[in-house]
């Protein structure tokens, strides 16, 4: 099980090697999540229309290793954009992947950019 988790590592804009096009802006729902695949990874993508920001993170919830985060409710906690896992409602920051509930479970996050109506996610491989 831990092997599945190992492939997810946070990528910052400075260590992007590949900007992978995942579709057009209109392919994604507003204010909720969708799931895309990159190599063996499942990645959740969220479009926050109120702030005009996009976020991406691993789809795998590290609590019970369920591929569910793209189905989670999104929102913010004191200004930090977050997703709540649909299973047991753990809240993860979409900025740094930390668990806003305080325990040490963490998720990997990925940069997203929009160019000419296309959505790209940054990967380090
Ligand atoms: S599986 Fe996500 S909070 Fe339990």
TrEMBL record:
What name does this protein carry? Answer: Nitrite reductase (NADH) small subunit
Q: Where is the Rieske domain?
A: 19-121
Q: Which organism is it from?
A: Flaviramulus basaltis
Q: Which stretches are annotated as coiled coil?
A: none
Provide the alphabetized UniProt keywords: 2Fe-2S, Heme, Iron, Iron-sulfur, Metal-binding, Nitrate assimilation, Oxidoreductase
- Output the GO biological process annotations, alphabetical, semicolon-separated: nitrate assimilation
Entries under NCBIfam families matching the protein: nirD_assim_sml
Q: Which GO terms describe its molecular function?
A: 2 iron, 2 sulfur cluster binding; metal ion binding; nitrite reductase [NAD(P)H] activity
Quote the CDD domains the UniProt record gives.
Answer: Rieske_NirD
Specify the taxonomic lineage.
Bacteria, Pseudomonadati, Bacteroidota, Flavobacteriia, Flavobacteriales
